[in-house]
């Protein structure tokens, strides 16, 4: 199930109340790469008819690299809806896979349908469905993997499911697959629970907001459960990696012992308690009772304000944990990763100070670069903006 050597670092386990989970099968070190994963599908997060303004970035419709003005961009010769590729190689690869003749025709028909007046979310869901049904044609085994992921569909999504099912089955039914509304519902649920967002370059951030350029389904990384204080985080290098640029890697944020579950945070760690609880219940269908939530559930509104809605640790608290005496206590609570270890009511302040990116409006998480020759790296990398920072705790 887990390949590339990651099977010796992580094992798949069934955990009560959490489903499948990835657990450290040996002690893991800060910065260690515990998983490399390739997507079974990647799809654009842009509207079906892409904005033509020069302010909006354009991405290769195969590898999702940013298309630079100087690039030798190749349009799809068969469709009129702006599918662009960064090289002849990407065009050839796409024509045989993600932009197959059926996808090309299906997207063209959707661009001429009532779907284009629907909200962006609906259009992107349609893009996912087309990519998912295309898997049946280009890689039936990957389609089976997609079906095996968590997610069954819920009544709250019924109207979106009905609409998308009607549009796809009437305008562009996939060959050799009998569509059912149950299949559409299950696929959309799998997308919602498992898709990873691949962000736009930080240089395109507008008003402090950065959008997703594409979504990918990563079959092994889909087994990571959530923790509001994650011990690992994932990185992608869409514009930087010379090949297989849509692969992701997961690196440890700090050391963990054998047997510990390895978790990611499903969203930026700066969100406050009530926002996190709401998102996890509505989008992922569970109530989080991680160590951080156990502590924050008991905070009064006043204490909750230690972290404002933007994730800033407020001055008084920051001073407190930068104090020499409290420093050790917070290191201790972090290494235990439990609420018992600290006797402050903000035991995870240390995590924010050390592992949250300080760049304005970034909210990324920092993980050390991989250890070299067994020694921990002194450099932390942000998984959102890519900034590198010296880790003052590593001497
Ligand atoms: C991406 S999947 C993670 C793998 C999943 N456990 C499985 O069995 O395939 C996301 C789903 O896992 C479950 N999950 C993730 N984190 C959890 C947590 N901290 N507590 C309980 N369930 C969790 C929820 O059902 C969530 O919708």
Automatic annotation (TrEMBL):
CDD domains: SET_SMYD (cd20071). Residues 8-267 form the SET domain. This is Histone-lysine N-methyltransferase ASHR2. The gene is LOC111306921.
